């Protein structure tokens, strides 16, 4: 397929333009631009004479039945010669809609999942202008307090710890709806585990936290214990150990043999990333290429208060929520669930 300009109504087309495709990614909630996108593609289908026109869409979360209903309503207002050519392929980490269902649509859905998995595995170093989404710190902090059984927290204290404005904090709390319990003094806490918001955060974790992966080009063996020891000796500033190593700190009986990757949390309240400490740990560590699984990952923590466990004598440890996100990025979903249950029982 070749690339077209955005004003063409589609992003890719086969050489003969028999198939055109529009690619879309959204990161919060169900796609609300479906009517606009479908109309653009329908017009492009008419102007190009395409025989098949596909919307390939990855979204963090959506209701499959709601999307099908919306799509059927859209098709009912288009001319019959266009509706028979349109196809919707919508994929999330837990849902999938291919309408109408056929083998080609399934191939497109599989390609979307593969691309999403590759993005989650390693995010190459990004331009300085690309910053993590700080607003998710509200959810992370509320979930941390829920895991620890902490009392309600005031909105003002949430502002202080996250470093966010009152409108941003209030908006995130409103979005959580009935999952949040509000007390008489206007403090808040989670009533229960926020399953859907958490699933969204897990899906977006590499982008939300600005994850940067590093590979070792020295050709050494895969044993990471020496590298962990070197990090602990150097104790780089504003950095905490997370991932599998951090999980073992909090939960000594953590169920995993070996260490597949070292995860570090870098406290950067402004979102700016000074990664020079990585080369000081080991000059052989360089940003990972897309086809190489990283042996070390750095995740940016942007809230005003790091919440690292730091006794001043050993390497600081990341909080349980950051470690949960690390484990899910590593596809250690069972271990992540066990880790969460461990914290709820403490």
Structure description:
The protein is an alpha+beta fold and 346 residues long. It folds into two domains: 2-120, no CATH class; 122-346, no CATH class. Helices cover 42% and strands 18% of the residues. It has 13 helices and 14 strands. It has helices at 34-48, 64-77, 80-83, 103-121, 137-148, 155-162, 166-176, 195-208, 225-234, 243-250, 276-281, 320-329, 333-345; strands spanning 2-3, 12-13, 19-26, 52-59, 86-91, 96-99, 153-154, 180-182, 187-190, 212-216, 239-241, 262-267, 285-287, 296-301. Strands 1-2-3-4-5-6 form a six-stranded mixed β-sheet, with helices on both faces. A five-stranded mixed β-sheet has the order 11-12-14-10-13. The longest helix is centred in the N-terminal third of the chain and has 19 residues, at 103-121. Residues 1-7 and 119-130 have low confidence and may be disordered.
